[in-house]
């Protein structure tokens, strides 16, 4: 079943809700294709099940998670209702710092994953690219749109192969995570009242 495209969250309050470290960590697990009960999610982030139930309901209200079916009818697992999200808008300094801490924690977990051993067909855990590109605001928006369109095209092809039970290159279909963050370098350089060297 193909997932709906990520919701566009441009509301500051929604951005704040998603930036909560416990919610963000649980979202990462759910976006990886796992299902979690409130108890499972609570253990993952060190909260009580009742507190985690509140957070999951909040994520459900944002359209990011939903209840999954249960074999025994007693457990109430949750699953992702999207395969990611896209946020626009400019967070304030506090909110921006919280979001960057979440991203840094994600990167730290990835870097702590050992590389695959010889003969292991799994991909290397991560690839990192940092580039500085001179372009106009319109060109930056167009580039972001092209990247998103390409990701949707690749995801659709991978999802179709998965649904047909096919493997890619005889090695299965690993799931990659792709995060993008882009911002104008001029924002810091041209900050009012800041000297430029």
UniProtKB/TrEMBL annotation:
Entry-linked InterPro entries: ArsR-like_HTH, WH-like_DNA-bd_sf, WH_DNA-bd_sf
One Pfam match: HTH_20
Name the UniProt record assigns to this protein: ArsR/SmtB family transcription factor
